[in-house]
Design a protein that fits this description.
The protein is of the alpha+beta class. 55% of the residues lie in helices and 10% in strands. The longest helix is centred in the first third of the chain and has 34 residues, at 102-135.
Length: 465
């Protein structure tokens, strides 16, 4: 079993404890004890078992050698597996010795004492780790507190002077940024429901929330269904990380199978993208690129950057990455005929919906950039194909201002999207394995999904190369 970073297991422990918080104290106490013991034992297994098993092996083999009893050579496996192999070999050796013999009795006594010392040491280490887990910092990557926010608020907006924080709740789940629900009670007695988004440490997107603010402000002013951006804190010393504060909007996230009005949702998405892809770049804070040659050069640079990042963070080389880079570069003309504002992660998981499955807000703009309309269209294509004919979606998209996009261009960005997402998955997996990422949702998903992404990328390239 692959070792798990202590930070991941500590985060898992906190999440499991949060799930038992609503139970009666007796039940919660019992479950929490079991969780603590299991997680602490996993950590001891990974971090402290080696010297404990080595001491056990030395003691048992020395006793057997002094009695002239051969045991098999040490196993090259990990500590826990070595102990299991040693004890099985010992059991066979004891069974082979005559009942009541002096050698058998001596071996029984010496080995039982050695194993008891191992168990005692393992238990003591487990208790120490349980205490250390309790004292570890919270799973979020920065020390945001109500007090820190209350000190910062008066300098952000005038009507926040004298406001008090009534709720500060971190959101769990797979998020590229740190996200908190923030409730304020204003000096006037009114309340405000807000969201705080901040950079992570480490940050797999390599894009700061500071870069989102001008775009979000402009899109909101132009009437797009997004949360209203209220304040941006670029100075990391103020809250611990760069952050932006937005108004919290109504709506819920739903999976495809939970939709009751899927055609309405897809129609809303088509209209949203049609408007987005024809909105002027001026005022968004995104640098405009014009001309086919300049756009092609931009994409070649992005393809090369993604390749370099994958080599930096991937757990092992993957030949499909070389093949994808070559195909994307050879066919860059498919991306060079347009440059518009794109969301970059336009999918069902980033929509908030009302009870009628209409989009109330589009979230998570950290990957927004100047790109090709087919990026967003391709990202949503599988959802669209499951609900309505692409021709119907394309007609709605064009009615809202979208331009002509070919199937070949969408196929190009199918490959690009998977190629790009490999970086995020590999990066999160690397940080998770190193113990520098404390978000176990993100870490677990990254390690699980990375091989699937490689397979999906292989299938996508096979279709076009």
């Amino acid at each position: 079993m692959q070792p798990q970073p202590r930070a991941y297991l500590a985060s898992l422990r906190r999440e499991l404890r949060s799930l038992t918080a609503s139970l009666d104290p007796a039940t919660a106490g019992g479950l929490n004890y079991c969780v603590d013991q299991i997680i602490a034992r996993l950590i001891v297994r990974d971090e402290a078992a080696e010297p404990l098993v080595a001491a056990l092996e030395t003691s048992i083999r020395a006793t057997a050698s002094s009695l002239g009893i051969p045991l098999s050579a040490p196993s090259p496996l990990g500590a826990i597996e070595r102990r299991a192999t040693l004890l099985r070999d010992l059991a066979q050796t004891l069974d082979a010795l005559p009942e009541g013999s002096t050698d058998r009795k001596a071996l029984e006594i010496a080995t039982s004492r050695a194993d008891e010392q191992y168990r005692k040491s393992f238990f003591e280490a487990t208790q120490r780790v349980t205490t250390e887990l309790t004292e570890m910092p919270a799973m979020t990557g920065w020390p945001l507190s109500a007090q820190r926010l209350e000190q910062a608020l008066p300098n952000l907006l005038p009507h926040w002077r004298g406001a008090t924080v009534t709720q500060l709740k971190p959101l769990t789940g797979i998020h590229a940024k740190e996200i908190y629900f923030l409730d304020l009670k204003l000096a006037s007695g009114e309340s405000e429901a807000l969201v705080v988004r901040s950079d992570r440490e480490p940050d797999i997107t390599r894009v700061s929330v500071v870069n989102e603010f001008p775009l979000l402000r402009t899109l909101y002013q132009r009437g797009f269904a997004i949360p209203e951006p209220l304040a941006m804190i670029a100075d990391a010393d103020v809250l611990g990380q760069a952050a932006l504060i937005m108004r919290r909007v109504p709506g819920t996230e739903r999976a495809l199978e939970a939709l009751t009005h899927p055609q309405d949702l897809v129609a809303d998405a088509a209209r949203f993208l049609g408007r987005l892809h024809c909105t002027p770049i001026e005022g968004t804070g995104l640098a405009e690129t014009t001309g086919t040659d300049a756009i092609a050069a931009l994409w070649r640079r992005r393809i090369a950057e993604q390749f370099d990042w994958i080599q930096e963070v991937a757990p092992e080389p993957a030949p499909i990455v070389w093949r994808a880079r070559r195909w994307l570069t050879d066919n860059v003309h498919l991306a060079a005929d347009a440059a518009t504002v794109v969301h970059g992660d336009f999918s069902l998981r980033n929509f908030l919906l009302n009870d009628e499955d209409r989009i109330t807000s589009v979230l998570d703009w950290e990957l927004a950039h100047i790109g090709h309309p087919a990026e967003d269209l391709g990202y949503l294509r599988l959802t669209v194909d499951a609900i309505m004919p692409w021709e119907r979606f394309d007609a709605l998209y064009r009615e809202a201002g979208g331009g002509h996009v070919t199937r070949e261009q969408i196929a190009y960005f199918d490959v690009w999207g998977l190629y790009r997402n490999l970086v995020f998955s590999a990066g999160a997996g690397k940080f998770f394995r190193e113990g520098t990422m404390t978000d176990y949702f993100m870490g677990t998903a990254a390690i699980t999904y990375y091989p699937q992404l490689l397979s999906l990328l292989t299938e996508a390239v096979e279709r076009v190369d």
